[in-house]
Amino acid sequence: MKKDVQEMVDRGEMLPLMEEFYTIQGEGFHKGTAAYFIRVGGCDVGCHWCDVKESWNAEIHPPTLTSEIVENARKYSDTIVVTGGEPLTWDMGPLTNRLKANGLNVHIETSGAYPLTGTWDWICLSPKKMKLPTDEVYAKANELKVIVYNKDDFRFAEEQAAKVGDACILYLQPEWSKRDKVVPLIVDYVMANPKWKVSLQTHKYLNIP
């Protein structure tokens, strides 16, 4: 990568853009909402069940000016979801400042493993055991979404729930490949612990991106 491009990436003026698309938010609190997704490449958290492993290597995704990303986004929706990969790998300040300047609602889906940058209307925190979130993102999370792959994830979920604010909405979501086994466990758990809610990847049931 050329030095000047690398410097712009380091400042968040360019981002390794994997894809951008207009769809229906399928998960969590805003499920069913039309939203424009910006998927940024780069992630070293390394979830073995990740369904977008092609996002991990930032070097294969072209550095793209944040001004161009925003110009595309503003044409489609007033709700923008920044996801990855792990978007907080990069400085989100320039992107979110431009999105907010266009009057857009800006959401992030993050593991929280890196310092929180950017200005957000909604923070969906999905913590991972391999690389835990920062204290700041726990305090600011609007939504906690824990992926359930096995029974130990319920223990992990409670540990994480103890660290977020009282207003944070708590979700348990089955890992897609294990859904037949873990959905009954999640249902039983939520019924016994009603502070939690069930989140499903409804976009996969709808067969949309």
TrEMBL record:
It catalyses: 6-carboxy-5,6,7,8-tetrahydropterin + H(+) = 7-carboxy-7-carbaguanine + NH4(+). Pathway: Purine metabolism; 7-cyano-7-deazaguanine biosynthesis. Its cofactor is [4Fe-4S] cluster; S-adenosyl-L-methionine; Mg(2+). It comes from the Bacteria. Residues 30-209 form the Radical SAM core domain. GO terms for biological process: tRNA queuosine(34) biosynthetic process. Keywords: 4Fe-4S, Iron, Iron-sulfur, Lyase, Magnesium, Metal-binding, Queuosine biosynthesis, S-adenosyl-L-methionine. Binds 1 [4Fe-4S] cluster. The cluster is coordinated with 3 cysteines and an exchangeable S-adenosyl-L-methionine. Binds 1 S-adenosyl-L-methionine per subunit. S-adenosyl-L-methionine binds at W49, C50, D51, G85, S126, P127, K128. GO terms for molecular function: 4 iron, 4 sulfur cluster binding; carbon-nitrogen lyase activity; magnesium ion binding; S-adenosyl-L-methionine binding. Its EC number is 4.3.99.3. Substrate binds at I24, Q25, G26, R39, T83, P209. [4Fe-4S] cluster binds at C43, C47, C50. Catalyzes the complex heterocyclic radical-mediated conversion of 6-carboxy-5,6,7,8-tetrahydropterin (CPH4) to 7-carboxy-7-deazaguanine (CDG), a step common to the biosynthetic pathways of all 7-deazapurine-containing compounds. Belongs to the radical SAM superfamily. 7-carboxy-7-deazaguanine synthase family. Homodimer. This is 7-carboxy-7-deazaguanine synthase. It comes from Mangrovimonas yunxiaonensis.
